[in-house]
């Protein structure tokens, strides 16, 4: 009788579950699983590529200005919180500084890049259809033409050409006075609205008021203490030839 153990051929554990699952799964499930694996593989490759790219890592790092701004903001917030009794230590913790620096890196972009709001507006504009973009462009062109017409109309109304009779009268007056335009020059006649009308009325009123005051001071008004020049004959003790 032999004492050796019976010999048996085993099955690999790595190949068996795959075979059983592939047999049990339907064709749609197999396609779905393979697509999912492909997407995961793409994500891993993109992440690895981004980590290896020095430009991408440099863009994600906060700049010195953002670090300084975040640190000063964290210090200011910590002092305010200590003054209000919210916290005891007036100095910021490293976590608070890191939080403010992260906020600055998200919002404190340059003017050319723009912040999150400008990016959101750009996305909204990109999501518009071609018909909406054409309508908006057409409305802008119509508004521009309308503004140009209004400006031209206002300029025409401002520039008023004097009548020919006035120009001829001005030329004849200058020629009678012996004036001739120099060589290479021409005479331009223009009419401007009067600005002295209000001043003339004001001066006239002041002159009239001044004359009235002078008349009152010189005796233009009645004065009770003034003795008349010809008192005439009347009854009284001062009359001569009166009855005694």
Question: Could you characterize what this model shows?
Answer:
The chain has 244 residues and is an all-alpha fold. 62% of the residues lie in helices and 0% in strands. It has helices spanning 15-24, 27-52, 54-60, 64-83, 94-107, 116-127, 130-158, 164-176, 197-217. The radius of gyration is 52 Å and the shape is elongated. The mean pLDDT is 73.
Provide a quick synopsis of the model.
It is built from nine helices and no strands.
Most strands sheet: none
Helix content: 55-70%
Q: Return the string of H and E elements.
A: HHHHHHHHH
Rg to the nearest angstrom? Answer: 52 Å
Average residue pLDDT: 73
* Low-confidence sequence ranges: none
The fraction of residues in strands falls at: under 5%
End-to-end distance: 202 Å
Number of strands: 0
Shape: elongated
Structural class by secondary-structure content: mainly alpha
- Total helical elements: 9
